[in-house]
Amino acid sequence: MKSNTFQRKHGFQRPFHSLQIFSWFSCIYNNLTYTIFIIPEHSYPEIIILSVIYIILLFLLILLWYKVSRSDPTDPITILYKKESDQVILQDYEEKNERHCSICNCPVYKTSKHCMRCSRCTIGFDHHCKWVNNCIGVQNYKEFFAFIVVVQFIHILMTVDIAFIGTQMILNENSVVSGYKKAGEKFFYFEEALIMIALVLCTLATIFITKLVFFHVYISIKGITTYQYILSTMKNVEKEKDLDDLSENRLMKNDSMEKNKKCCGINNFNAPENSLNQTVVVKNSASV
Ligand SMILES: [Zn+2]
Ligand SMILES: [Zn+2]
């Protein structure tokens, strides 16, 4: 096995994903707007407490974002196989491991899955995160979960604070930074526009990230990965589709039986009532 095609090792490798670039700009914009315009609006000692909480969250956010983006969750067997250093070890892996990746053309761990975006097998594959442009697997899942929780906390803090302070600024027509009465109307409205854009971005991010955190709590309780959840959802959809097809076939059969009945003039024809009832039940359950 020797493949010379592109293989991603971490999220900082090019090509970058458009969502990844968007997240960088959005994060810089929101945090700058919050730091420059919102934090100074608070009075002492509130400003000290808020600043300490915000700096801790921001530090954790940058640290975890770097760790998740820079981590390499590649299946170690594929790395070893590429080096081809120890033929005995490789032979052992070939015999022991039941799974074989036809794209990497080597044995892999049972929990590994080939990611087409990264062109590599990821051990304990959960999903490929476009926001950090990296695979999330067993090796970086804990950091990823901690990262999204911190992202959620910092966005809740910024959303609530921007909404509260922004409303007060509009109502009082005053701001510590621009000072409506001092600097004039134009700069004040420009500042308000920047704050409103940050509020929209932070609100959308809070909704999205909260849903994501709850989803990961849910799958963690169930003891499954995102990939396994998607697979089970797809299987359920297929099952529902099969049941739907089955019920439609039964309905068609019933129609043709009714026609035969009328055509032949049989009054005590044993119509399959049960199957008609089943059809209704199946149809209802499939649409839920
Ligand atoms: Zn592979
Ligand atoms: Zn990937």
Q: Which ligands does the model contain, each kind named once?
A: zinc ion
- The rounded Rg comes to 29 Å
E-strand count: 6
Q: What share of residues is helical?
A: 55-70%
What structural class should be given to the helix and strand makeup? mainly alpha
Q: What's the order of the H and E elements?
A: HHHHEEEEEEHHHHH
The CA-CA distance between the termini, in Å, is: 48 Å
> How much of the residues is beta strand, in percent?
5-15%
Instruction: Catalogue the unreliable spans.
Output: 261-288
Largest sheet: 2 strands, antiparallel
The helix tally amounts to 9
Q: What average pLDDT do the residues reach?
A: 80
Shape: elongated
Strand order of the largest sheet: 1-2
Domain count, please report it: 2
Q: What would your notes on this structure say?
A:
There is one protein chain. By secondary structure, this protein is mainly alpha-helical. It has nine helices and six strands; from the N terminus they run ααααββββββααααα. The strands form three sheets. Strands 1-2 form a two-stranded antiparallel sheet. Helix 2 (46-70) packs antiparallel against helix 5. The longest helix has 39 residues, at 226-264. The two termini are 48 Å apart. The structure holds zinc ion (2 copies). One zinc ion is lined by residues 115, 117-118, 128, 135. It is found in: Membrane. This is Palmitoyltransferase. The chain crosses the membrane at residues 21-40, 46-66, 144-171, 193-219.
